[in-house]
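in:
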């Protein structure tokens, strides 16, 4: 996906009705020794980092349970859409653990430090409506009889992104992600570098031409 220039948006969904991702199999984990657990969690953390580093926008369609590592997967995405009946939580402390695949870092960046601490310290689960009110998800929708309401809303959101200039969207994602990690002056410099890369693109010329000619732009990602 990282190197396929035809890909403009990635939507993560589950094929299991009622479950987005239930997290690690603790029965399997119980059979591991301490070294194996550490290796397992490191691989999981690396996977989430790879998802977060995808150059195109990513959307998690949460139609059911997103618990522990499942919520960490959703947090590694750029955008999240949840069914109102979905259940989300970093529940690791209820099992003698703490989030180990990015949850302690991505949740506070998403909802704020105080609320993230409360959710992690208590292991509380929240539904789609509660998640929307705290900014954990971008949109919440009533679940439908097929059990894929969040996925359908995620596709609608993806279709809003698709017509936009692909390289400009990628640069926007890069500028936001890198800029969030530094002070604002450094962030402005990052934005400037990303903008400079976008200036010579054919899509920028197309966008200007389409505006002058009062027609929809036809972006090609170049």
């Amino acid at each position: 996906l990282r190197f396929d220039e035809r890909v403009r948006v990635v939507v993560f969904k589950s094929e299991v009705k009622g479950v987005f991702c239930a997290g690690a199999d603790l029965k399997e984990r119980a059979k591991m020794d301490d070294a194996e657990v550490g290796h397992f969690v490191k691989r999981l953390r690396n996977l989430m980092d790879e998802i977060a580093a995808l150059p195109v926008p990513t959307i998690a369609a949460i139609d059911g349970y997103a618990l522990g590592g499942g919520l960490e997967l959703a947090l590694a995405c750029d955008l999240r859409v949840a069914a109102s009946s979905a259940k989300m939580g970093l529940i690791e402390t209820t099992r003698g653990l703490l989030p180990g695949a990015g949850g302690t870092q991505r949740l506070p960046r998403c909802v704020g430090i105080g609320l993230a601490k409360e959710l992690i310290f208590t292991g509380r689960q929240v539904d789609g409506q509660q998640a929307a009110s705290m900014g954990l998800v971008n949109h919440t929708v009533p679940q439908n009889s097929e059990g894929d309401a969040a996925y359908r809303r995620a596709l609608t959101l993806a279709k809003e992104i698709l017509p936009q200039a692909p390289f400009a969207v990628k640069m926007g994602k890069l500028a936001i992600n890198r800029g969030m990690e530094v002070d604002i002056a450094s962030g402005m410099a990052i934005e400037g570098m990303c903008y400079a890369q976008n200036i010579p693109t054919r899509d920028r010329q197309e966008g200007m031409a389409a505006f002058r000619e009062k027609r929809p732009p036809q972006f090609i990602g170049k």
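note: The CA atoms of residues 175 and 193 lie 9 Å apart.
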